[in-house]
Amino acid sequence: MLQISNAVAIPDDELEITAIRAQGAGGQNVNKVSSAIHLRFDIRASSLPEFYKERLLALSDQRISKEGVIVIKAQNHRTQEKNREEALARLVELIKEATKQQKARRPTRATRASQVRRVDKKTHRGKIKALRGKPID
To answer: Where are the chain's structural domains?
Structure first.
């Protein structure tokens, strides 16, 4: 069981974890050992509450496919176990981020003094540019 919060958990059978060979440098060992982890999690077929599913599917994250499958590849560590832990931690973090409530934006206005300063700067700049022209005879 992968624990997301006190009330929400994902059963292990809903996670598809496969070991693959890592990319990049690593000498002879990288060609022999499958230490990278490829984690797949189908949002629609999962037992997550509907609120979680809706929020995850609404995200515009490159790790979520059009079919609603989260794909995470972990290959930072040398061992398969650490990469597995990292992939699961990234999945939990993604789900938690999706369910956080966004703070409502409160519209603000520029102060009167800042508006006056802006207009003064514009007129001053315009005068400087006007002086660059050819002198009138």
So the answer is: 2-99
